[in-house]
Design brief:
Length: 91
């Protein structure tokens, strides 16, 4: 988890990822769509996480940016209220 990250949303995003494709996943919470890096981390300590999956299917991507299994959702988003969306992640 990046200490400069913000909570993009307090629920996961279902995204179909294709096997063998390298994806750059947003870790900062500032990218426009919240899932894939668009360079919005510039000026922070955050760097995107490169992910490749073995099976093409739908995955639940962590949007709170604090999952213990990042970039995949582990339910950690439940610690964030709607008022905490857009604010700093809890360390």
């Amino acid at each position: 988890m990046c200490k400069d990250a913000i909570v993009f949303r307090n629920s996961p995003e279902a995204v179909t990822l294709e096997a063998g494709v390298a994806y750059m996943i947003c870790t900062c919470g500032r990218s426009k769509g919240g899932v894939f890096c668009d360079g919005s981390h510039e000026g922070t300590q955050c760097l995107p996480k490169e992910v490749s999956v073995e099976k093409t299917k739908q995955y639940h991507i962590c949007m709170c940016k604090t999952s213990g299994n990042f970039p995949f959702c582990d339910g950690t988003h439940s610690i964030y209220s709607d008022d905490e969306v857009g604010k700093a992640v809890k360390s």
